[in-house]
Amino acid sequence: xxxxxxxxxxxxxxxxxxxxxxxxxxxxxxxxxxxxxxxxxxxxxxxxxxxxxxxxxxxxxxxxxxxxxxxxxxxxxxxxxxxxxxxxxxxxxxxxxxxxxxxxxxxxxxxxxxxxxxxxxxxxxxxxxxxxxxxxxxxxxxxxxxxxxxxxxxxxxxxxxxxxxxxxxxxxxxxxxxxxxxxxxxxxxxxxxxxxxxxxxxxxxxxxxxxxxxxxxxxxxxxxxxxxxxxxxxxxxxxxxxxxxxxxxxxxxxxxxxxxxxxxxxxxxxxxxxxxxxxxxxxxxxxxxxxx
Length: 292
What we know:
Elements: H1 14-31, H2 36-42, H3 47-54, H4 62-71, H5 77-90, H6 108-116, E1 119-124, H7 135-145, H8 151-164, E2 175-181, H9 182-186, H10 192-206, E3 211-216, E4 230-234, E5 243-248, E6 251-255, H11 258-274, H12 281-291
Parallel strand pairs: 1-2, 2-3
Antiparallel strand pairs: 1-4, 4-5, 5-6
Helix pairs in contact: 1-5, 2-3, 4-5, 7-8, 10-12
């Protein structure tokens, strides 16, 4: 089983920090037996704003947080200062803000979650997962999926994909556990040279100690559960629950309820059990290379 990196080796990004701040505000509110309506009135906002704050889906105004802490009876100054310091960090813009002109709104939360995850588990059905793509493979795939986009916008989308790969680089690489359907490796994206470089890149990535790579072969039959591409994110902070990310043509679903997440966790576990072990992946990749 792929292990989560040491909590002390990871620095939380703004997305994780917003979730942590929101969870703390919710605990304070519930402990003080204050309704969302009363909390909203105290900061001259709406109940939906309180809901967004507590779920970490918005930035925080320090004054709003300070007023809420006062309303909730949190008067210990070190405790207030600590949470307000987290607010300042949580409001820091992520690197992806520079690419908002080409990124859909529904995708930005995922970039923040991916950046902050300690363990990324993914199942690639049709294509190689983004974090494992070479530059040329990514460019060919993005251009195919965005045929009407100008070349400049395609290049910016490629830049985003390449920037995402840094989560796997030192000094604190995230753990990645990827199961790839054999079809994703045999489906041609670009020419033979692009595919050969992509398979060779996968072989090198599989050698990294923090990357677990398995191939679900055709011989194993249909994919378990008939699921499509899925990504599960796990965080170093105990307060943060696992998140399942399911992307579709015009948007994405973010699943956080344990009653929903556990089914996908089970399916990913089953894929890992039924696919050949990681030690066999290099031989499978060599076989695919030989067939190109």
